[in-house]
Write a structure and sequence with these properties.
Blueprint: E1 7-15, H1 20-39, E2 43-52, H2 62-72, E3 78-81, H3 84-87, H4 91-103, E4 107-110, E5 115-116, H5 122-154
Parallel strand pairs: 1-2, 1-3, 3-4
Antiparallel strand pairs: 4-5
Helix pairs in contact: 4-5
């Protein structure tokens, strides 16, 4: 009789801002992954790591760093994440983290893309997805800056009413 190995499974959930409309998204992600892990008979919950922070840098992402520490201590076999962009938006940082996880024999499942880190064909796809996630973030920032500048030019900016000191 062959029994499936019991896996210690963690999940990582992230939204970029602390805006109210993202509160329900992050709560739903947390509930969803807690349920997915508990419904699998051979999985033990190693933690659901939740944060509301930009994915552009690893600095300041305390939950991500805590998850990585747990992996380094050999306490996680599998990480579930909604998509590449939720794990992070900086190509170099994410490639380093994913290579480290692979070296630690920790698999990562990217649900939206339906991809596993330990799939041998994934190395190039990871680079492409990470680059897209970073580019998407940079484009959003450019669009926001453009909108603010246009608001000033047209005299419709809400920022014009703020008093500036210094």
């Amino acid at each position: 009789l062959v029994t499936e190995k019991r896996l210690r499974v963690a999940a990582y959930c992230r939204v970029s801002t602390r805006q109210e409309e993202q509160d329900s998204s992050i709560e739903q992600q947390e509930q969803y992954y807690t349920q997915v892990i508990s419904n699998h008979p051979n999985w033990t919950n190693a933690g659901v790591f939740v944060e509301r922070v930009s994915g552009l840098r690893r600095k300041g992402r305390w939950e991500f760093q805590a998850l990585m520490k747990l992996c380094r201590r050999g306490k996680v076999d599998l990480i579930l994440v909604k998509s590449f962009s939720r794990l992070g938006r900086n190509t170099l940082d994410m490639l380093r983290a994913l290579r480290e996880l692979k070296g630690l024999d920790v698999d990562v499942y990217f649900e939206e893309e339906n991809l596993w880190l330990h799939d041998e064909r994934i190395e190039m796809l990871i680079t492409v997805f990470c680059a897209f996630a970073q580019s998407e973030s940079e484009n959003m920032s450019q669009n926001i800056r453009w909108g603010v500048r246009q608001g000033f030019r047209m005299g419709t900016s809400g920022y014009a009413d703020f008093v500036c000191y210094g």
